[in-house]
Each structure stands twice: as C-alpha cells, then as structure tokens.
Amino acid sequence: SYASFCDAVLNNIKVAEEMRRQAAMLDGGDEDDEHDARRQQELENQAQASAATSQQETFRLKVLRQCNEWSKQIFGVERHAVDALDRRLKLLFLLLLVASTVSFLVLQLWLFRNLAQKDVHLI
C-alpha cells in the first residue's frame, strides 16, 4: 500500500520497488498453501501494476524530454544572455580576487619592510 502511494503520488518508482521487495522478503517466511496461493495472486497483481507503471514511466520520460527540448527553444536568446552575464560576473570576481591578493601581498611586504624593521631597530 505504501509502495503504491510512493509510485502513484510521490512518483518515486525506486522507493516503491524497494518497498515491494522488502514486503516480499517479509512475506516469504510462511509456508501455508492458502497463503502461497494468495501470495501468488498478489505477485501477479504486482506484475500487472508494474507493467502499467513502466508504461507511465515511459510517458513521464517522453514528457520530460520534450520539456527539455522546448525550454532550449523558448528561452534560447535569454538563456545565452544570462550565461554571458554569468561568465562576466565570474571573471570580474576572479579579477577582484587576484587584485585584492596582490594588493594585500604588496602592502604586507611594504609594511613589514618599512615599518616593522624600523621599529625593530628602534628597540
């Protein structure tokens, strides 16, 4: 039942199949004939449900592929503009990082050589 919920509502087929496998493993310990017949019927029902699930999954994959293709066509120009802006910002931040590192090193060396060494000589 929870596996069906995961499959139908949450659209998480992997979790649903894992729950079905766990339930099948837990049910495997009984050896009654009546229970075996009921279990066989449940397995057949699960096989039919699994076939329906795989058809739904195929449909889901088709829709996902179509949406991915359409999004590139619909927002192509805007997407390229955003990508270009993103590259410019990354380059700007990289240049800012390099400039700040260089200025820090120059100031550190200048301050150390000029001020710190003069102060050591005065002590």
Model description:
By secondary structure, the protein is mainly α. Helices cover 90% and strands 0% of the residues. It contains four helices and no strands. It has helices at residues 2-8, 13-27, 33-74, 76-122. Helix 1 (2-8) packs antiparallel against helix 2. It is elongated and about 100 Å long. The termini are far apart. The mean pLDDT is 77.
With helices defined by DSSP (H or I, 4 residues minimum), what is the helix count? 4
Distance between the termini: 83 Å
Provide mean pLDDT, rounded.
77
Tell me the Rg in angstroms. 33 Å
- Helix vs. strand class: mainly alpha
Residues in β-strands, percent? under 5%
* Silhouette: elongated
Helix content: over 70%
Low-confidence stretches: none
> Main sheet, how many strands, which sense, barrel?
none
Encode the helix/strand succession as letters: HHHH
> How many E strands?
0
SSE layout:
Blueprint (H helix, E strand, L loop, with lengths): L1 H7 L4 H15 L5 H42 L1 H47 L1
Salient structural properties:
single chain; 123 residues; mainly alpha
Task: Give a nutshell description of this structure.
The chain has helices at residues 2-8, 13-27, 33-74, 76-122. With 123 residues, the protein is an all-alpha fold. The longest helix is centred in the last third of the chain and has 47 residues, at 76-122.
